[in-house]
Every structure is written in C-alpha cells, then in structure tokens.
C-alpha cells in the first residue's frame, strides 16, 4: 500500500480481516437504505425501527444453507445460526418485546449504541452493553420498556408526534372519501381517533355542523354577501358546505395552522370543484386565484394561527371549534367582528363543563360549578358568561340566539351588538346562582350592591333552616338571561326544511317549544301573531299593522334612536322569556309511587296555571316556572301506588290543608283516603311519598 509516496508494509492477515468486516457491513447498509426508500424514511433511520417482522428478517438475509448473525445482537451475545433458529430469535426476543407507535415497532436492540465510559476493561464494557430501545421521535436510547412507553407518551402530550424520520404524508390511496350534505371530503383512515398532528373529522358532530349552517343561512338572508370564517378547518367540511349551498351569499375563508390540514383542505376544494384562493406565502403563485378571477365558487384558504387572522381581518360570521375550550380565542373573535355579526363556538371540553373536573372549569372559565340535575344547562350558561365578559372587554354586548348542550359538545351562537350600553346590559346579566344541595332548588342572586348576611335565605325552600350545616352553595358567575331567540330559531327551522337537514329539524322544533315554553302539540312554524311582528336585531318585535316602524332591518348600522327603541321593546317583552333551568322528573320521583307519563304530567302542570315545556338538555326534564314545592305537589297528586291493590284507584288525593304555595308535609303525616287500607298494618300504606337526596345521590 502506497500513501504520500511512501511504501508502507501491512501484514496480509490484517488486510483480510478489514475486507471481511467491510463485506459484512455492506449488506446491512444496502438493506437499510432500500427499506428507508420504501417506507418513506431518510437514510439515518435505525435498523431496530421497522413496520413488519418480515422487514426485520430481511436485514438478516435468511438463507437455509447459510448461517447468519442477528442484525440486532453482537456476535458475542448471539452467534450465527440457521434460518429457523434465527426466525424464532427475532420473533421472541426482539419483536414481541417491542414498543408500537403509529404503525412502527421499536424493537429491542443489543448493539453497542449507548455510550460507555472509556475507563472500563473489555469484559466490563461487554457487560455494560445491555438491551435498549431507540425512540422514533427524538432518537434517544432508553433501557426499560416501561420507560420507553412513558417517554413516547410525554412526546404525545406535548404534541410532538412528527418524527424526524416520519416526514412523508400518507399516500392518497390510503384516504377515505366521506360524503355529508352533498359534500365530499377526503379523510385519513384514523380520522375518528387521530393523533394531534392529523386532521380530525368526527361524524358524530354532523348535527353541530347542520345547526351552524342554519344560523349562517339566516344571517345570509339578512345581508349579502357576508364574510365568514371557519377558524379551525381540519378537513374543511364545514366551509365547503357553506360555499356549496349558499353560493354567492357568502365569502368563505377556511383557516388552519397545520400544514397537512391546509393541504387536505385544498384537495377537498378541488374534489368538490371549488376554486382555491391561497393566502400562504410559501405556496407557489400558479395556484393562487387573483381578485379578478374570484367568483362564487372560490374559497380562500389560509395557514396561520386563529388569533392572528381574527386580529388582522374583520368578519360577519366566525365559528370557533378548537380542540377543547374556546376561551383562548374569544378576545380575538370579538375584536374585529362586525356589528350585528354572529359568533358561534363549539366547546368539547365537556369533562370540565359537566362538573367532572371542577378545577379545570375554574381555571378556564373562572366559574365555580358542581354536579347538579341541570348540569347541561349550567354548562351552557358557563360558556355564555365567558363569552359575555370577552365581548364586554371590547365594548360589545351580545344577544344569545342559541345554546345547545348535548353529549359531545356545547354550542353557543350569539349576535354581537356594538357599543358600551349593550355591553353594560349584557354584563349585568352575569350573576351568581344559589343552589340547594339537598333538594336542588335554585335561584339567581338578586341584583344590587348590598351584601346580605345570609344570601341562602333567597331560596324558596326551607332546607337552610331545617337541615343542620350548610345546605346551599354559590355557583357562578353564570349567564342569567335567555338562552334562545324564538324568531331566530323559527327562521333556522325554515332553512333546515329548505335545505333538507333532517337531523336538525326535530331538535329545532324542540328548541322553539322550549324558547316559548310550550308543548309540542301547540307548535307551528308560523305563530298566529307573525303578521304583526317585524324583525330587528334577530328578534321578532310586535308592532301595529300600519306602523311607521314596520320595516325589516338587514343588518346595517342603525341610529342611536332606533337602538334605544329596540332596547325598550325588548325590555317590554322580557316577561315572555322562558324560565331558567329545569327539573328532572326522575330525580324528584316519589318512592313507592308510579309517576304519570311525562306528556300527561306536562298537561297537569299547564292546567295548574304554570308555563311548561320539555327541554333538549334532558329527555326527562321539565322546564317550568313552577317552584319545586308545587312541582312535587302536582307530581304527588297524579302518582299512583306501586302495589297491586291500588293501581286502578286513580290519583292520590292530598289532605285539604295542603294549598298552593305551601310545603308538602312529611309522608308519615299523610293518610291515603282509602278505607280498605286504614287497617293494613303491613306498613305498605305508610309508604314514603317524598324522599330527597343531597347532590350526587340521585334517586333511582
């Protein structure tokens, strides 16, 4: 061998040993490179990270007539052997003890990958080369399998799921095409349970999307064209439905901060034959649609943070649907939203809103809540209170158009009213709620600056005086105003019928009845007084037939005189608002008695002179302005005993001394007016008619 014109003699045995080592390393490097190209990995991927066991066996180059070493073990630990024995070794000692992540297996590795202290002797060095795992995200080496699982979970919790090895998007052949409301979208196979870096598409939120579409369609009928924003596009399904059905009435902007989601939104726009107007600096200019080419089939796609785009631009309609709570985006949403515009937000952090994680609700919403029978309405009022405070900080008031709380989400739709006066009026409706933990009676705290010594005396019940200790708690601050706008809901129902949204129609009918506090049998799309009602700020206002003020406002700015007149008329109709909260008929059932059917019970309460309706919050809930005492009185009156001898005897007749407005006496003091049961000493006739439980111990 010659180097630098010098002849250097190297023993032949050393040259043969070096050539042998090079030949052994070449097949491993070539196989690794081939696997990297096929699986989308760069060339620095460690060989212990594979998708399939067959890929791991390819590294060993199994042949029946030759002995091969294990690719993940040194020769000192595992000597070369034939294919059948090596296959068992790879399957049992490497593959079965691997850690799985996103379809890849991080197999256990016995090679000398971990650094060893240099002052160790050769035998000690071999002993220190123990088994370890290579992290697919940060390429760290970790010894124990449980530590490796915890290490991966910490990456996932931080949102660090994009590996420096996994940089290629999934092939288009792996996409699924889902059709909803005549709109096609491409979704990933794991769209229902994605990682944080993937686009999320939830089929269970179809009802939510239909309600938001109806609200936007109503706003588009007031003024056009309107600029609307879907701040968290994901797959772009919601914005595509807006543009496809409302056409020239809306100018749709779909935003997302994830690059993969933005790419998928553009592909879904082309799939639905929509033109894309890009607002992304790094994109090529050939895909951008100019202002002159913009038409009704054009959707603007942006890639930026939701707070940034809402600070930079003004919109008439904004929808927020982040992962979890929406409170981090409320200040930006109300900063530039136009007057009489609409802001809708979907909150999916139901664990905190439904009082399962009360400390999280206190941290996010600044609200103290407990688990009650009306916890869903409590969640809706908690979100509206946060929305009210955010709007008031921007000198804007709100008018609640819709509040829905179902199993998976809480949807709130509000109209924005500019000015300090609407802001003050809205802020005054945020109050504390006094809740009795024993009988679950509730009442909003009275307005005023005077602090009462015992605010729990405002409750209609006597639990605070009859029971020892503290029986009531202070919840809130909560929204104390109306949750629905009847006129807006009726127009939403008409839009749902027009566009054939079958899932939204039954819910909207229930919401209209709940807003008017009437039963479904009295429901009609056009109320009898519609000919004398005009619309202003989204509210139907009673006027005379030939009044000078009978005109339809299409969302433009009005003078201060018209706004003051509108506020006066709204205050005059304030008495017609639906009563807050509801009672669960099962929660207040009478032990030993059969309750009447729910629809019959609604008729009984209505005949007693109370406003009554069902509620979408609870299928067995009753919204009424009757106090809890009278609610229990009517329920007791029309309940029948469960034992056979008195099933056909009709309703139970209460003693004559019980009148409306008085408490029902204890069950032991009530005597059933049936002479054949007076001599019954078996204890059946002395059944307990009422039984109350503290919060958290509901009656079965």
UniProtKB/TrEMBL annotation:
GO cellular component: nucleolus
Any one of the GO BP annotations: tRNA N2-guanine methylation
Xref: InterPro entries: SAM-dependent_MTases_sf, Trm1, tRNA_met_Trm1_C, Znf_C2H2_type
Protein location: Nucleus, Nucleolus
GO molecular function, one term: tRNA (guanine) methyltransferase activity
Domain of life of the source: Eukaryota
SUPFAM superfamilies (UniProt xref): S-adenosyl-L-methionine-dependent methyltransferases
Annotated ranges, domain C2H2-type: 135-155
Gene3D superfamilies from the UniProt entry: N2,N2-dimethylguanosine tRNA methyltransferase, C-terminal domain, Vaccinia Virus protein VP39
Keyword Methyltransferase set for record: yes
Region: Disordered, residue numbers: 1-40
Catalytic activity field: guanosine(27) in tRNA(Tyr) + 2 S-adenosyl-L-methionine = N(2)-dimethylguanosine(27) in tRNA(Tyr) + 2 S-adenosyl-L-homocysteine + 2 H(+)
Keywords (A to Z) from UniProt: Isopeptide bond, Metal-binding, Methyltransferase, Nucleus, Phosphoprotein, RNA-binding, S-adenosyl-L-methionine, Transferase, tRNA processing, tRNA-binding, Ubl conjugation, Zinc, Zinc-finger
PANTHER family for this protein: N 2 ,N 2 -DIMETHYLGUANOSINE TRNA METHYLTRANSFERASE, TRMT1-LIKE PROTEIN
UniProt record similarity statement: Belongs to the class I-like SAM-binding methyltransferase superfamily. Trm1 family.
Name used for this protein in its record: tRNA (guanine(27)-N(2))-dimethyltransferase
Species name: Vireo altiloquus (Black-whiskered vireo)
């Amino acid at each position: 061998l010659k180097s630098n014109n010098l002849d250097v003699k190297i023993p032949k045995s050393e040259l043969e040993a070096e050539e042998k080592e090079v030949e052994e390393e070449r097949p491993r490097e070539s196989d690794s490179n081939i696997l990297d190209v096929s699986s989308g990995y760069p060339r620095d991927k460690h060989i212990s990270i594979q998708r399939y066991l067959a890929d791991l066996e390819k590294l060993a180059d199994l042949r029946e007539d030759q002995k091969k070493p294990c690719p993940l073990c040194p020769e000192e630990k595992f000597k070369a052997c034939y294919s059948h024995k090596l296959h068992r070794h790879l399957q049992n000692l490497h593959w079965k003890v691997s850690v799985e992540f996103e379809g890849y297996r991080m197999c256990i590795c016995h090679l000398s990958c971990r650094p060893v202290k240099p002052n160790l002797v050769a035998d000690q060095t071999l002993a220190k080369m123990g088994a370890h795992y290579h992290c697919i995200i940060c390429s760290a080496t970790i010894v124990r399998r449980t530590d490796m699982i915890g290490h991966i979970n910490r990456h996932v919790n931080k949102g660090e799921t994009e590996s420096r090895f996994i940089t290629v998007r999934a092939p288009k052949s792996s996409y699924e095409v889902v059709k909803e409301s005549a709109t096609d979208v491409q979704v990933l196979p794991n769209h229902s349970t994605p990682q944080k870096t993937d686009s999320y598409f939830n089929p269970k939120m179809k009802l939510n999307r239909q309600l938001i579409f109806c609200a936007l369609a109503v706003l588009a009928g007031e003024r056009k064209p309107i600029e609307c924003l879907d701040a968290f596009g994901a797959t772009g399904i919601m914005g595509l439905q807006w543009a496809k059905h409302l056409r020239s009435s809306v100018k749709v902007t779909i935003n997302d901060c994830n690059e993969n989601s933005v790419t998928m939104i553009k592909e879904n726009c082309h799939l639905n034959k929509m033109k894309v107007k890009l607002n992304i600096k790094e994109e090529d200019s050939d895909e951008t649609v100019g202002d002159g080419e913009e038409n009704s089939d054009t959707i603007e796609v942006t890639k930026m943070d939701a707070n940034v785009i809402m600070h930079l631009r003004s919109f008439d309609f904004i929808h927020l649907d982040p992962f979890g709570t929406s409170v981090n985006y409320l200040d930006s949403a109300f900063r530039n939203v136009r007057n009489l515009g609409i802001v809708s937000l979907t909150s999916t952090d139901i664990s905190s809103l439904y009082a399962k994680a009360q400390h999280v609700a206190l941290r996010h919403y600044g609200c103290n809540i407990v688990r009650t029978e009306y916890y869903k309405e409590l969640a809706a009022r908690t979100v509206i209170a946060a929305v009210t405070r955010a709007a008031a900080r921007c000198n804007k008031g709100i008018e609640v158009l819709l509040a829905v709380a179902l199993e998976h989400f809480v949807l709130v739709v509000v109209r924005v009213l500019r000015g300090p006066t609407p802001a003050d009026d809205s802020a005054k409706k945020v109050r504390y709620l006094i809740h009795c933990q024993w009988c679950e009676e509730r009442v909003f705290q009275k307005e005023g600056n005077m602090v009462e010594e015992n605010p729990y005396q405002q409750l209609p019940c006597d639990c605070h005086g009859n029971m020892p200790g503290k029986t009531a708690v202070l919840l809130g601050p909560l929204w104390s105003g109306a949750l629905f706008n009847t006129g807006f809901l009726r127009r939403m129902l008409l839009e749902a019928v027009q566009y054939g949204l079958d899932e939204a129609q039954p819910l909207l009918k229930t919401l209209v009845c709940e807003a008017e506090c009437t039963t479904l049998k009295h429901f009609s799309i056009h109320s009898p007084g519609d000919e004398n009602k005009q619309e202003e700020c989204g509210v139907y206002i009673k006027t005379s037939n030939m009044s000078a003020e009978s005109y339809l406002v299409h969302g433009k700015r009005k003078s201060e005189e018209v706004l003051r007149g509108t506020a006066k008329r709204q205050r005059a109709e304030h008495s017609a608002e639906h009563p807050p909260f509801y009672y669960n008929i099962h929660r207040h059932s009478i032990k030993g008695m059969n309750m009447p059917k729910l629809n019959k019970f609604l008729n009984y309460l209505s005949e007693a002179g109370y406003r009554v309706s069902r509620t979408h919050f609870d299928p067995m809930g009753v919204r009424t302005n009757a106090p809890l005492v009278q609610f229990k009185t009517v329920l007791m009156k029309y309940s029948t005993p469960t034992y056979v001898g008195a099933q056909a005897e009709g309703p139970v007749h209460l003693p004559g001394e019980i009148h409306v407005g008085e408490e029902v006496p204890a069950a032991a003091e009530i005597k059933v007016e049936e002479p054949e049961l007076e001599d019954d000493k078996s204890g059946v006739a002395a059944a307990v008619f009422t039984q109350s439980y503290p919060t958290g111990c509901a009656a079965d």
